[in-house]
Each structure stands twice: as structure tokens, then as C-alpha cells.
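Why this split exists: single-chain examples teach little about how molecules sit against one another. For that reason, every record in the complexes split bundles all components of an assembly together and asks for one structure covering all of them. Below is a record exactly as it appears in the raw files.
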Amino acid sequence: MERDTHFVTGVYEDEDVLLKAITQVRSSGIKIHEVYSPYPVHGIDDYLGYKRSRLPIAAFLFGLLGTTLALTMQFYMMKFDWPMIIGGKDYGAFPDFIPVTFELTVLLASFGMVGVFMVSTNLKPWAQPRIFDLRITDDKHVLAIDIANNSSMELAKIEEILKSSGASEVNKKSFE
Amino acid sequence: MAHDVQHYNLDQKFDFSAATKKLVFTVLGIGAALLVLGIIMAMFGGGHHQAAEAEGHAFHWYERLYANLWINNVYFTGIAIIGVFFFAIQYAAQAGWSTAIIRVMLSLGNWLPIAGVLMIVTFFVANHDLFHWTHAYLFDKNAPEYDKIIDGKGAFFYWPMAKGTFPVFYILRMVLFFGFWVFFFKKFQQFTYNEDVIGGTATWYKIRSWSAFFLIFFAVSSSISAWDWVMSIDTHWFSTLFGWYVFASWFVAGLSTITLITIFLKSQGLLEMVNENHVHDLGKFIFGFTIFWTYLWFSQFLLIYYANIPEETVYFIERLSSDIYGPFIFVNLAMNFVLPFLLLMTRDSKRHGVFLKLVCALIIAGHWVDFFLMVQPGTLGHNGGVGFMEVGMFLVYGAAFTFVVLSGLAKGNLVPKNHPMLEESYHHHI
């Protein structure tokens, strides 16, 4: 699917060292591809300079879609397609429709959010995950740098910066 | 870096300055002026109402005054007890994030002793004008007004005395609830200020145990007080989730009050350790419980609407088909659900800017409308409405409440400096 990519990875033992290293690596002008850790590191998004996720916007829009869909569906069914008197109420008895509207809003908002999340983070079921280092599932933090994205800097220089930032190992990793 | 040593001034006290006091008294003055204006208008302007009720009992202007007293008694009592309740929740849940502001929560309880006195006095002054069930003829089988349904409920008010005499059980509950609420409030206050002196973790464990007992008591008392003080106005009618509904209304209003006081203290340069993360969490509480209130409001409405049983629907027909109260049903939903829901949805609106303050003010006014809709239709019927008297009385109570709470807050240190979880509160980050 994609052309060959080559990465340099720094392996870190400790989250505090990792967070300091991220700041150091970024300030030296290197673009970080991604950081992998065995557990969520609190505040790491701020260190990596990530913008806030736009996932809530997607959730809101999907929720709105759910609300619209539910109300349209119920009004169409109950008032126009097959009008029925239920409990002596009007055909378009708005309060009756609220529980279904609520449920569909929640359903579409959550499904939509999960779907958007899966797609945007490349977690689709058929995606081939790139494993930079098996130890990221155990006790090591790995900072990955895409060499092609940092072509203005020599490879040796990048490795040196990683070493000096406290990495216990500096490795190369390529994917086909 | 998050692990730096913090140097906050932990001995800061809130200074209830002359300027702030002036502001509070100005609001009090405006409220009192409006109230007097409203009373005068009601005394001399009520002609057509009396004509309309020529067959029944004539309507007197002071009935509206009593109804207003009752709305605000119940509402501000609720806000005050929610402060104590939320304080107890922090301990029972072993929450650390809120440590810097727990005394702000507790300070709301300062209103409780005054609220208790006001409530009992208002009840004795206004009983027949507020509560239909206080009329003795309802329980007299030979009287033409004999009411079988109310007679069946009578023991809940009058036990162990004869129905229609003196509501011993009712008064007993009122005294008991206020007594225990004030007792727990004083205990919490005593423990937390004592912690400043003795330090250690013993106080924390002690407050946690007391909180658990308080929460059990509050669970029962908040529900029953809602039946007693609000639901019994519409004596025939009942709703099984009414206790929760009133609690939710109180809770949202109380949270908004806590948030407003916190933001106010921050604007005074106090509570330096409280940052947008803490405010964000308070905002989330408000957002969440706004929806909770709506959920209960709608649950009550939908079941009654759907089942369509006359003795239940009367509650909503009385309100929705009235020219006076009908529009307020929608005002109520807009102020307490639609606007807060849309305005507080984004992260930024809960963290910075004026939105949170705006929504808090909106909610405090909005839940007053909620209580207005619970109390006035049953007591005043078509003689009610929102006029100078309502606005004035609300401002008077609001200003008095603010004065009492801020005076209480100024008495001790703002931050529990020896609280074992204070450090966690500094580093709260979301």
C-alpha cells in the first residue's frame, strides 16, 4: 500500500525521561512520528504538541443526525404513513417520540464516534499494525522518528540527539 | 513539570470587603424596593381577581407573599443543604481534585439555621394559605367539604394527634431534618477547621465516616422534605419520583452556586491553586446534572401524559392550560435544559470565558422558575404569576443568602491546609 518507510527509534525506560526527551527532541527541530508506551502517560499530548482531538465535533454531528433521523422516521410513520391513535393522543404526539429520539441520538453519536475514531487512528480491523518494538507492550517506551520526514537532518545527528536525551537504545526499523 | 514544589499561601482568608458588602446590600435594597412595590400593587390592584372568586374565598394579597416566601424558603434551603451534601460526597468518594474548594461547598450550609427558622415561622403564619390539607373540615366526615382522599393521607401530617388538629408529625419531620442538617453541618465545620490546627489524617477518616452517615440521612430526608414542603401543596396529586426531581433541581442550583462563588473568589486573587481544570470539573457536574434534572422532569411528564389518568394529569393541565403558568413550562425547559446543554457542550466553555458564569446565573434563575411552577399553581391558582413581588423576594433572599454564606466563609481559612489530599488537588489535570 505504502512505499517502504524507514524509522529511527529511541527506547526509553522511564516516563519522566521520555517526557523530557520529547521536549528536547522537538526543540532540536526533529519531527516525531509517534510515541508508543505500554500504558497511558498523563499529559503526553501536551508534550507532543498535539492539537485537541476533533472527535467531539464528529460525535455532535452524528448525534444531530440521530435526532433528525429518529424524529423524521417517527413522524413519517406515525403521522403520514400509517396513522394510528395511541392512548387517545394526536397522530404526531411529540412527547411520545422523545425516548426513541434519545436512544437513536445516543446510538448514532457513540457508533459514529467509534467509527470515526477507528478510521482516523488507523485502527480498522483490516489494518496492519506497525510494531516498532515488541517491548512496548511490556515495559519500554518507544519514540519513533520517520527518516523521510526529517531529511534535512543527518541520520547520525538524529541518533546522537536521541542518545543524549536519555534513550537506553537507539534502533532502526523499516517496514515494507 | 508537574513535580515541582508548590508555594501557595495556605493561610489565605476571604476578606468580605466593604465594596462586596455594598454590592450585596444594593441588590438587597433593589429587591426590597421591588418587593414593597409588588405588595402595594397587589394590595390595591387586585380588584378583578376578587370579583372572579366571589363564590369561593376571596383572594388576599398576602397569600401571594406567603407563596413567594415559601418558594424561596424551599429553594435556598435546598441550595444550602446541597453545599453540605456535595462536601460529604467528596469525602465519601475519597475525591482529591476538589480539596481546594471543599470549604466553599461547606460554606453554603451557613444559611441552614436561618432557613430552618424562616421555614417553620412561614409555615405557622401561612399554613391555611399554602397547604390545603391544614383545613380541619377536610377530615370531618359530617362536613360538606369532607375529602376521603386527603383523610386517607391525613395521618402522615397529624399522627399521633387527631387529623385536622395540629400537624405534629409534619412539624416533627421539619424540625428533625433541619436539626440534623445543621448538626452535621456544624460537625463538618468543626472537624475541618480543627484539622488546620492538629494536622494528620485522623480528621479525614473521621469526616469520611460522618459523611457516610450524613448521606444516608440526606437520602431519606431530602426525599421526604420534597413531599412535605412541595408535593403536599397539591394534596390529592402525587408522583413517586418527586423527591428525586426536587433533589435534582436543588443539586444543579447548588452546583451553580458553588461554581459562581469559586469563580468569584478566584477573581479576588484567592484560591491560586484552583485553575481551569477544577472549574472544568465543576462545569461538567453542572452539565451532567442539568441533563439529570431534565431526565427526571421528562420522566414525570411522559408517564403522566402517556397514561392519561385524570387524577395525575391534573397537575400538568393546571399548569399547561393556564395563561399564567403555561409559558413558564417552556421557559423552565429552555433555561434549565436547552440553553445550558448547548452552551456548556464544548470543552472551552467549561474552562474559560464567560459562558460558565452566564450558564450558572441562568440556572440559578431557572431553577427558581422550576420551584415557582411547583408552588404557585397549587397555592394561588390564577392569582399568581411573575411580577415585582416575585423578582423582589428572589433578590432579597438571594442577597441575604449571599451575605450569610460569604460572612461564614470569611471566618476561617479558605483552604484546608492540612488536608491529606491537598497535593492531589494542585496537580489535578484533565
